[in-house]
Amino acid sequence: MRQLSWILSGLARILCPKRGREPKAEGGSEAAAEMARDAKKNEMILEKSGTVCGKRSNCFVAVCSMRGEKGVNQDCTIVWEEFGCEKDLIFCGVFDGHGSWGHHVAKQVRKALPSLLLCKWQETLASASTDTCKTIGHFEIWKESYLRACAAVDGELRLSRGLDSFNSGTTALTIIKQGELMVIANVGDSRAILATKADDGHLVPIQLTVDLKPNLQQEVERITRCNGLVFCLQDEPGVHRVWLPDGETPGLAMSRAFGDYCLKGFGLISVPEVSQRRITCRDQFVVLATDGVWDVVSNQEAVEIVSSTKDRCKSAKRLVKYAVRAWKHKRRGVAVDDCSAICLFFDSYRPPPPCVEAAHRA
Questions:
Q1: In terms of pTM, does the model score above 0.70?
Q2: Were both Cys, which of 62, 211, 341, 357 would link to 189 (CB 3.0–4.6 Å)?
Q3: What are 80-139's pLDDT values in tens digits?
Q4: Cis omega before residue 250 (within 30°)?
Q5: Phi then psi for 166, rounded to 5 degrees?
Q6: Is 192 helix (H, G, I), strand (E, B) or coil?
Q7: How far apart are the first and last CA of the chain?
């Protein structure tokens, strides 16, 4: 019964984002978009490096994104506190664009996905009968909402006249946390890890996502079934890419992405892998990062770097700076990739005054 109450109250919040306001006639899409505008106005959304003190969600978030040596930074991030007007709900995401329009595509997906997710969440709730609501859980609702939202985002991108996403695209890794429930949705090769305490008290990483690379069995089978090709170039051993049947273009190093419509008929998809995790007292924090970080930093290294940072405000920045240095000595002669990370801690944190001021200036 408590679960049913949560579902119905969530639906009411989407339809009536402000107290005393009647449901809008134009439906959930406009209501969700208006909710995003209100959240930005009230500084509940962070879209740059900085920190979020989630007092009501009892968590703390540090964010950092650094441009590499390939031109404009094609990574972008988002943290939305009180997502969907739920006081204990927080939404985090990292997006990694590629191609000449990749930075534009990444920012467009960052803008569209949260609002469409709220809209599809509303639709999923509304379409479920009362009896169904009693039997399905929070995760099933969010999973269905994610699948619908990602399909809608990719459909909107295809029709967008202002973006050339035929040969450009983006990954998207997002997490929703409400209470002890975490829902993780991944499109592409960014990665999320969880730092948890082992029996001996040491922090160890648990990888929450799979890097969706073209050489994974389920991915390569789908791609080849659709007449796409997967192979490595001679000067890039171990780097599997997706190619058109002619084997000449475009050489995409991931098997799922938004955009990249030149490959959408040849096995590339934008369907997210959606999973859940129940947070326990042993779990300390989550790190979401783009492949620029994970190409040169191991899961264990990331946990050690973040956990050893005395001031949590600097945890994401310290991890990203470590990755940039690692690129320069591990991948000499190779241009440093854009590196972005979000560190989501599962308990509140009162940063020292200098950190508060720095976050305000960011």
A1: yes
A2: 211
A3: 999 988 888 999 999 999 999 999 999 999 999 999 999 999 888 887 765 555 556 789
A4: yes
A5: -70, -45
A6: strand
A7: 43
